[in-house]
Amino acid sequence: MIIGNLVKYLFLQESRSMQSLFWMLLFPVFLLVLFGFIFGQEGFREDSVIVGVDPAVFEEIERGARTFQGEQDTALNFITLDPAEGKTALFENRIYAYITRGPEDREYRVLITERYRQFSFLLTSILDRMNIDFYAEKFKGREFFPYTLELATLEGRSYSYVYYLLAGIAGISLMLNCFFALPQIIITYRNQGFLKRFIFTPLSKVDFTLSLIIERSIVGLLQIGFLAAAARLIFDVRFSINPGAFRLVYFAGAAAFGVVGFFLAGVLQSIEASAAVAQILNMLFMFTGGIFLPLEMMPPFFSRISKINPVLYLSHGINSAMLMGRGIADIKNDLYILAGIFCVFLTVTVFTFRYNRKL
Amino acid sequence: MNLYKSYGKKKVLKGISFNVRRGEVFTLIGPNGSGKTTIMEILEGVRTYNSGSFTILGKNTGDREVREKIGVAIQDSHSLSHLRVSELLAMYSKLYTRTLPLEEVIRSVHLTGKERQMVRNLSGGEKQLLNIAVAIVHDPQIVFLDEPSTGLDPEARRRLWSSMGILKEQGKTILLTTHNMEEAELLSDRVAILKDGILRSLGSPEDLLKEAGMNKRIDFEFNESEDGIISILQDRFQLKKGHAGSYSIFTMNVEDDMKYFLSITSSAGISIRSLSIHVPDLEDVYFVCTGGEG
C-alpha cells in the first residue's frame, strides 16, 4: 500500500518532466536508430541461419582436424574443436558455429550455434573474407574436405545486427536508469531535504528502496516498450517473447542494478561525483558488455573483462527471453549472476545508504 | 536532557536542558552556529548526540508511534515539484495510519484554491506553507518548524504566522527556530536564547524582558561620529549599535539615565540628531544575551 502509493507519485513526478521524458524514452530509441543505421540492419544473409545440431558430423570433423593438425595454424585455423562441448567448432574471431552435413553429398552447411545466432551477420562477412572457394580448392581431394564446402540456405529466421543491438540497448537503458539516473535522483532528493523528510515518517528504508527500484523498473519497461515499437516500425524486428522468462530476467536486472545505484548514492555525496562515477561505469560496462559491438570483434582482453560485466548477462537474458523466446532454464546462469549482484550490493547498501547528508 | 554534541573538537551543545509543555509554542533563538538547528535535528532523530537523554511524548524519538505523532517542516525546496499540491499532500498522508482530510489541511495553511497547482509554480511563501501542510497532514501532536519564515516577504510571513496561529489554536505543541524576533515574540509562549551551545535564557518574552532588567530603551543618533562619547556611554550602559550611526542604550531608570546622557553630551558639545524612548522588545533581550550577534 505504502510502496504502491510512493511509486505512483514518484512516477508521476518523473513522467511530467520533459528532461526525464527525453532521457527515459527518446534517448534509447535515438541510440537504437543511430547505431542501427550506422552498422546497418542488412548485415545478414539468408544463408546463415539456425537449425539444430548434428553431433555425428562433428566426430567426422574432429577426425579431419586431427589429420590436418599440422596445417591448423595456417589454412585450418578456422576450425578447432572444443573438447568440453565436443560438438562445437571454433571459427576465427571466435564465432561459434556448427558444421553439419548438407543435403547433397560432399556438402557441408555452416551453421551458427544457437547461442551466437545474433552474430550471424558477422559470420557471413567472415566467411566472405575467408574465401570459401580458396579453402575448398586447397583441400580438394584430401581427407578433411571430401565435400564441397558451401553455405546453404535453410529454413528459419535470420537475425540482424538490430536484434543484437536492441537487447543491448534495453540492457543499457536499464543500467543507465540505475547507475546514472537513480543516484542522481537520490542525491538530488537528499541534498534538497526530500529524503530527510522521510526520517520523520513511519516509512522504512526498505519500503523506500523498493519504491524507487519499482518506479525505475516501470520506467525501464516503458523504455523497452518504446524501443520495441521503434525496432518493429523502423527495422521490422520480429519478437519472440517468453513472458515468464522476460519478467524474471528484467526484474532480476532491475533489482541488481537498482541496488548498485543505491550503493553509489550512499557513498557519493554530490551530483557531480555521481555523474562522474556513473559515466565511467557506464562507458566501461557499455563497451565490455558488447552493447554496440560484439565482444568477438574486440581484443581478447575485453572478452576477459566482459565475464565480470553484469550488463552482458542482462542483455543476454533479455535477448534470449524477448527476441529468441527462450525459457527460464536457458537463462538461469544470467539469473544467478544478477541475483548474486543483488545480494552482495543489497548487503553493502544497507550499511552505506542514508536519507540525509553525512552528519 | 543535558545534551552534549561535538563536531570533531568543536563543542556545539554544552549541556542543553529544557522541557516543552504540551500545547505551547517553544522557540529557540540564537546567532548562527549557536546550536538551534542541531537541537532540533537531535530531537527529530536526524542527528546523533554525544551524551544526555530526552524523550518525546515519553518515548524515544525513533519509535514508530512517535513518528506518527510528530510533524517536521524543513527547508525543503520540494524535489517533487512536478506534482500538484493535492498530490504531494496525498502522497505524504498515505505514509501515516491517521490523517486529516486534505481540504482541512489545505485550509489550515491558507492554500485553498491552490490544490491543483503544480508545486513548482507556487511562490516561495506558498511553498513554505506547503511545507507546514506536509508536516501536519497526519494531525501530529508536535510540530517542528525550522526557520519557516526565512526568505519570505512581509505578506507571505503574515500568512505563515496566521497558519501557525491556527496550529496553536488547535492545541498542537510547536517547536520553532527563527532569526525573526518579531515572529518569536508574536507566536511564542516561551523562548530559549542560545549562544555558543549554552542556554543563556529561557522564559516567556515578558519574563525575559524582566529578567534582563530592561525597562526602557533610549535610541539616539549624533550628527557626527563621536567615538569618544560612545566609549563613555559603553562604560555605563549596555549599548547597541543600530543602522546608519544610530545607537540604543537599555535602562531600568529612564529618568536618571536620560539626565546623565543629556549632561555628558551637552558638556561635550555634541549635536544630537534624534533621540527617542521606547519599550524594549525581545530583540533587545536577544541583543543583551548574545552580545549583539546576528
Report on this model:
The complex is a heterodimer of chains A (359) and B (294). Chain A has 359 residues and is mostly helical. Chain A has two domains: 2-41 and 160-352, no CATH class; 55-149, no CATH class. Helix content of chain A is 61%, strand content 5%. Chain A has 13 helices and five strands. Chain A has a five-stranded mixed β-sheet. Mean pLDDT of chain A is 69; it is low at 41-58, 60-109, 111-118 and 138-158. Chain B folds into two domains: 3-204, Rossmann fold (3-Layer(aba) Sandwich), CATH 3.40.50.300; 212-290, Alpha-Beta Plaits. In chain B, 36% of the residues lie in helices and 22% in strands. A six-stranded mixed β-sheet of chain B has the order 4-5-6-3-7-8, with helices on both faces. Chain B has a four-stranded antiparallel β-sheet with strand order 10-11-9-12, covered by helices on one side. Chain B is elongated. Chain A binds chain B through residues 1-2, 5-6, 8-10, 12-14, 16-17, 188-189, 192-194, 196-203, 356, 359, and chain B through 41, 44-48, 64, 67-68, 70-72, 74-83, 87-88, 90-92, 94-97, 134, 144.
How many strand elements of chain A? 5
Strand order of the largest sheet of chain A: 1-2-3-4-5
Q: Given the helix and strand composition of chain B, which structural class is it? A: alpha/beta
Task: Give the ordered list of helices and strands of chain B.
Answer: EEEHHEHHHEHEHEEHEHEEHEH
Strand content of chain B: 15-25%
The rounded distance between the terminal residues' Cα atoms of chain A is 31 Å
**Count of DSSP H/I helices of chain B:** 11
Oligomer: heterodimer
Instruction: Enumerate the spans of chain A where pLDDT stays under 50 for 5 or more consecutive residues.
Output: 41-58, 60-109, 111-118, 138-158
CATH topology of the largest domain in chain B: Rossmann fold
> How many β-strands of chain B, per DSSP?
12
- The domain count of chain A comes to 2
Low-confidence stretches of chain B: none
Based on the structure given, which CATH architecture of the largest domain in chain B is correct? Answer: 3-Layer(aba) Sandwich
Q: Approximately how much helix is present in the residues of chain B?
A: 25-40%
Number of discrete helical segments of chain A: 13
> What are the secondary-structure elements of chain A, in order, as H or E?
HHHEEEEHHEHHHHHHHH
